[in-house]
Design goal:
Layout lengths: L8 E3 L3 H9 L3 E3 L2 H8 L5 H9 L20 H12 L2 H20 L9 E3 L2 H18 L2 H4 L4 H8 L3 H5 L8 H24 L12 E2 L3 E2 H10 L7 H32 L1 H13 L1 E2 L9 E2 L1 H5 L2 H14 E9 L3 E3 L2 E3 L4 E5 H5 L25 E2 L11 H8 L20 E2 L21 H18 E5 L16 E3 L8 E5 L6
Helix pairs in contact: 4-11, 5-6, 5-18, 6-12, 8-10, 10-12, 12-13, 12-15, 12-18
Family: Belongs to the cytochrome P450 family.
Keywords: Heme, Iron, Metal-binding, Monooxygenase, Oxidoreductase
Organism: Clonostachys byssicola
Length: 499
């Protein structure tokens, strides 16, 4: 990593040091979010000044030396609103609407019937239909009906997000800035129309949980929050929504593609997964419609969770930055005040001293996908995510990052999903006060997409024997790395749903 002269940055590795970074009161977030808002998402100068002046941090309590007024804690208030609304009953409404819209999307594809239909790129197919359902569930139907090219415009801009973040000037790449501007103009057009038809300056408990102009109550609460700050002009509101749309779609859609690919590449895994899908299926009203699922039951399946966690371990690449508020000691290494540290989730995900890599007779290197890596089989001491000799030592020292959701708490011979022992080595969503608030929806969306698509369609990849997709490293450091290149396939509707 190239740094400006005089700036020192340390890369922190190892579970204990990472835990210290996430938990330390002496660490606070860097300005990466403010930089992204300016460069990648095009916030206005007025809005940027509001963000840049907020030195209070993302925690509930402002940083001790903070000078910003409590009402102008824009970073914390926006982050906290997401935390509160992408969980619990609010998230349940959004997830149910997502299922509803995705079922409609998949049912209405007239080109796919009972006979095989060639699809040039499975990735693009999922990008269009999954993002359409996600946008409608979160933001209502008008964002797309007013902007028929929105999804195409977004995916045209998305590969350039990182280039913009690095500060490439407009005169060197005007087309990149034009792509960003198209997305911003689309959002502003939707905002203008929606505000003219629906008043969301105050959001009451009795208001509808979802309506077509702004979509979810969460979306309306965001607009109400933005209205508190005069500096949040039209462009700044659009940039903030653009950042959220990027975070909630570029990452989860890319993860959904990988999740589905792993099933298509391994028929035995596909059969096992279909059994979990069927156990949570809500049967459709007709033989030709797309099924929906009991979300809690589906996402608590041990294999579903293990494939989800392994997908993120291999396909997410982020750099987590923190700045020291005072001198700190990391096992004898000293970080001075105002120096920055970085955590690479990829380095931690490939640490052979921590992770289980299988046995001599059944090896599973960390560079490869292993569906069972996060499963503990009763009586099998070689199973589970942690290297065998560390399992008992680490189990009492680290907490789980994902909840193990089980309807039946009684002991069972079936394998159990667990991240115990790797809670500070599996960090695709960062940690501490900046823990990604959208992680619950991302998990539900990734598993739901695979369940709904596989239960409604048969899909065969049209690739060479032994073909394995690779990460598109252009996205390294900015979240989920989608598969590189196109994924040709053929698709037909199942004659019996879920079989």
């Amino acid at each position: 990593m190239v740094l400006p002269a005089g700036l020192t940055q340390y890369v922190v590795t190892g579970p204990r040091n990472i835990a210290k970074v996430f938990r330390a009161e002496g660490m606070h977030a860097t300005l990466s979010h403010v930089i992204a808002m300016e460069r990648s998402f095009g916030i206005s100068p007025r809005g940027l000044a509001l963000y840049a002046a907020d030195d209070s941090g993302f925690g509930a309590q402002p940083q001790p030396q903070s000078k910003v007024d409590p009402e102008n804690r824009v970073l914390y208030q926006i982050h906290n609103l997401v935390n509160q609304n992408l969980a619990g009953s609010s998230l349940s409404v959004i997830t149910e609407k997502f299922q509803e819209f995705l079922a409609t999307e998949l049912s209405s594809i007239e080109a796919i019937g009972p006979d095989w239909t060639d699809v040039p790129d499975l990735g693009e197919f999922l990008q269009v239909h999954v993002m359409s359902a996600a946008l409608k569930a979160m933001f209502g139907t008008y964002i797309l009906s007013l902007n028929p090219t929105f999804i195409d415009d977004f995916w045209a801009w998305n590969p350039e997000m990182g280039t913009l973040f690095m500060g490439l000037p407009k005169w060197l790449a005007p087309s990149i800035y034009e792509k960003r501007e198209r997305v911003l103009q689309n959002i502003m057009r939707w905002h203008d129309y929606a505000h003219a038809h629906f008043d969301c300056h105050k959001v009451a408990d009795e208001d509808p949980a979802w309506e077509p102009y702004f979509g979810s109550k969460f979306s309306r609460k965001r607009q109400a929050l933005f209205s508190r700050w005069e500096a949040m002009d039209k462009r700044s509101r659009a940039a903030e929504d653009m950042s959220f749309i990027w975070a909630s779609n570029a990452n989860s859609v890319g993860g959904s593609i990988w999740f589905l690919l792993e099933l298509l590449l391994d028929p035995a895994l596909q059969d096992r997964m279909m059994n979990e899908f069927r156990s949570a299926m809500v049967h459709p009203k007709s033989s030709t419609s797309v099924p929906t699922f009991n979300v809690d039951r589906l996402t608590s399946g041990a294999l579903c969770q293990s494939v989800y966690a392994e997908t993120l371990r291999l396909r997410v690449a982020i750099m987590i930055g923190r700045k020291a508020k005072y001198d700190m000691d990391f096992s004898g290494w000293f970080v001075k005040e105002n120096e920055t540290v970085a955590i690479s989730n990829t380095i931690e995900a490939m640490d052979t001293s921590i992770w289980n890599t299988g046995t001599e007779g059944d090896p599973h290197p960390l560079e490869t996908f292993w569906a069972d890596r996060f499963l503990i089989y009763p009586g099998d001491k070689t199973s589970g995510p942690v290297k065998r000799q560390l399992a008992s030592e680490n189990s009492s020292k680290e907490t789980e990052t994902i909840e193990i959701e089980r309807n039946d708490p009684a002991p069972s011979p079936a394998p159990q999903f667990s991240v115990k022992g790797v809670g500070n080595s599996w960090v695709p969503f960062s940690g501490g006060p900046r823990h990604c608030p959208g992680r619950h929806f991302a998990k539900q969306e990734m598993i739901l997409v695979a369940a709904m698509v596989m239960s409604a369609f048969e899909i065969e990849l049209k690739v060479e024997p032994g073909w394995r997709p690779k990460n598109d490293t252009k996205y390294f450091g900015f979240g989920t790395m989608p598969p590189s290149g196109i994924i040709p396939c053929r698709i037909r509707r199942r004659t019996q749903i879920g079989v």
